[in-house]
Amino acid sequence: MFDKGWTGLFKQASQMQSKLAEIQEGLAEKTIEVSTGGGMVKVVANGLNEIISIRIDDELINMKDREVLEDLITGAVNEANKKVKELAQGEMTKVTGDIKFPGLFPPT
User: Is residue 56 one of the residues assigned to a domain?
Assistant: First the structure.
């Protein structure tokens, strides 16, 4: 049936899959925080790219400038997204080394 080469390959693939699952679980526990507007908008996200919180400074809310508020929130969320991708890629590289698997890392 399968020779020892194939069996070893499947075993390595299974081990890598287990390690990747562990990393993904660990990413759920990690958080990043970014801010825009000199700290007027802060976004916290976890390593799974879920937004945990958005904090908006009272001064910004009192300005009553919807466009500025929308731009700062959008910028903070986009920056959080970028940082989470970098975090995830760094964690995954610990398992895969410099090997690039198509579809494993979304473009940044």
Answer: yes
Among residues 4, 71, 78, 5, which one has the least CA distance to residue 45? 78
27 CB-near residues (< 8 Å, 6+ apart): 46, 47, 48, 87, 88, 91
Verdict on whether the full-model pTM lies above 0.85: no
Helix (H) or strand (E) holding 26: helix 4-29
Evaluate if residue 44 carries a pLDDT over 50: yes
CB atoms under 10 Å from CB of 94, counted, come to 9
CA distance 28 to 48: 5
Domain range for 48 is 4-96
- Tally of structural domains, the chain: 1
Q: Of residues 106 and 71, which shows the higher confidence score? A: 71
Q: Is the torsion defined by CA of 48, 81, 73, 35 positive or negative?
A: positive
